[in-house]
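The instructor's notes for this session suggest beginning with a concrete chain rather than abstract definitions. Hand out the sequence below and ask the class to guess, before any prediction is shown, which regions might be ordered.
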Amino acid sequence: MSLDTVIAETRKAVTDDAASAQLVFGAHGTLVGVTEVDIRTGAHTFTVDEPPALGGGDRAANPVQYALAALGSCQAITYRFWAEQLGIPFDTLSVRVEGDLDIRGFFGFDDAVRPGFSAIRVHVTVDGPEPAESYQRLAVAVDEHCPVLDLFSNPVPVTRTTERAG
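After discussion, reveal the predicted structure:
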């Protein structure tokens, strides 16, 4: 099925029934080592770990690397969707994401330092037949519609519960 067909069929389904636009995504993690976590998201599984400098075995990317990967991959996918919708073709697209993190916040060494990123930079390289202005218009549409960029850019209410197993 083409991306154009997916967009058209989704638009019709959501127009016919707005409730069909509501999705729930989830992930379940189990700590299996000092810092190693097995993650299941539906039918997919992957591992998260920390580098030795943070007490881990470096068996996989760490959580903040996955967060940056989520942002970069979401940007790339959103470019593909919006290029289709705006009729702006491109030949190649790559995304590089960098984030600045001060570990004093994570370790609690300085409560004035936040534990998360203090800055994130998204570098998109696009090549294709269109003039630069078209790719700038595409970039604006992507920034307005990228779900993970929205997650990084705007506060999201988070609730947490803690239960005792057993």
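Then share the key points. The domain at 62-155 is CATH 3.30.300.20 (GMP Synthetase; Chain A, domain 3). The CA atoms of residues 19 and 49 lie 37 Å apart.
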